[in-house]
Write a structure and sequence with these properties.
This protein has strands spanning 2-9, 25-26, 33-36, 40-44, 53-56, 66-70, 75-79, 87-92, 97-103, 108-114, 117-122, 128-133, 139-144, 157-162, 168-173, 177-182, 188-193, 209-212, 216-220, 226-230, 235-240, 249-255, 261-267, 278-281, 286-290, 299-304, 310-315, 318-324. By secondary structure, the protein is mainly β. 0% of the residues lie in helices and 48% in strands. It is built from no helices and 28 strands. The chain is globular, with a radius of gyration of 18 Å.
């Protein structure tokens, strides 16, 4: 069903690569891959033909910055990584140029474009998500997240999902849970509490969110596997918490272009039999394939190629390419 294909090395600019690649995206046509680092961005050829190149002087690109693609326009929104990034930057993936910035005024944890709006989560806070109109970048409101500290850790609201009709939304907060909000009024209307009990040594919480058919919400659990919720009932309907007797730490998730499968990168602190991606059928989280391990690098974000056959995973200072045979 799948196999490791090759590795694209990005370790060419130590001045802007402090540790490792974390997030990535592909242009809508699949011809460019973009990986943000601290103050610069690597551009790679998904086909592995053209050499890697870099864009310098990228505002709001801190360590562990997030990048979110608007596939309708080809614009990518970049921001986050901590207190030093006080806004987000807009990059045209077709021309590889910065076309705009928006100052938020506080340290950013992440930025994500969803539908016609941009969500910017504040770093290390008990409270705020800033929401902007995608067209004119005007602030349209804020979501009072109300995240709680646990074990001295710093909660960041990082990932978001919104229904197609803008009626309901979800915001994932590390070390706390998933906030439910009214996507029109932006009012906080509830929470899915996914924290572990205090003192168990794992801060837990919610990471990436994906929404399928406005009904199935997929949530990576920060070191604790992957869950599926039916948002019509609020109940968890499937969970992937064990593989080979170990708990896989899901680091990134992405739907296949046909949205019938979900690809997940995973790491378990060096456990070789789970230090590799997984491929699931959705809805239901039926495991289709566990890829052979690729030791030596901690995996991160995932991007699916439009051809439906390739998935790209940040790994160390590089990108690993995995091939999948469509069903």
């Amino acid at each position: 069903a799948g196999a490791f294909n090759r590795r694209i090395d990005l370790a060419l600019r130590p001045d802007c690569q402090p540790a490792r690649a974390v997030e990535l995206t592909l242009s809508p046509d699949g011809r460019r891959g973009l990986v943000p680092f601290s103050g610069c961005m690597a551009i790679f050829d998904p086909d592995g033909v053209a050499p890697v190149r870099f864009i310098d002087g990228i505002p709001n690109s801190g360590f562990a910055a997030f990048i979110s693609l608007d596939s309708a326009t080809g614009l990518a929104y970049l921001g986050g990584g901590g207190q030093e990034t006080s806004g987000f930057t807009i990059i045209d993936t077709r021309t590889e140029t910065v076309v705009g910035t928006r100052d938020v005024g506080v340290g950013m944890a992440s930025v994500q474009v969803v539908g016609g709006r941009i969500f910017a989560g504040e770093a290390c806070t008990n409270g705020r998500v800033f929401v902007y109109d995608k067209g004119n970048l005007a602030e349209v409101g804020r979501i009072a997240v109300g995240a709680t500290f646990q074990g001295g850790t710093c909660p960041n609201t990082i990932f978001f999902a919104v229904t197609a009709n803008d009626s309901a939304g979800w915001a994932a907060t590390t070390y706390s849970g998933v906030v439910l909000f009214d996507a029109r009024s932006l009012a906080n209307v509830g929470v899915i509490d996914v924290r572990d009990p205090p003192g168990d040594g794992n801060p837990g919480g919610a990471g990436r969110l994906l929404l399928l058919q406005d009904r199935w919400l997929y949530m990576d659990r920060i070191r604790e596997g992957l869950d599926e919720y039916d948002v019509s009932t609020g109940q968890r309907t499937a969970s992937f918490q064990n593989f080979g007797g170990l708990q896989p730490a899901i680091k990134g998730i992405a739907f296949a272009p046909d949205r019938r499968q979900l690809f997940a990168s995973a790491d378990a602190g060096g456990a070789a039999n789970v230090r590799a991606p997984f491929l699931f059928r959705v809805p239901g989280l039926a495991l289709r394939y566990a890829f052979p391990p690729q030791p030596g690098h901690v995996p991160g974000g995932v991007a699916a190629h439009p051809d439906g056959r390739r998935y790209f995973v940040t790994s160390g200072i590089g990108v690993d390419v995995f091939l999948v045979r469509p069903e």
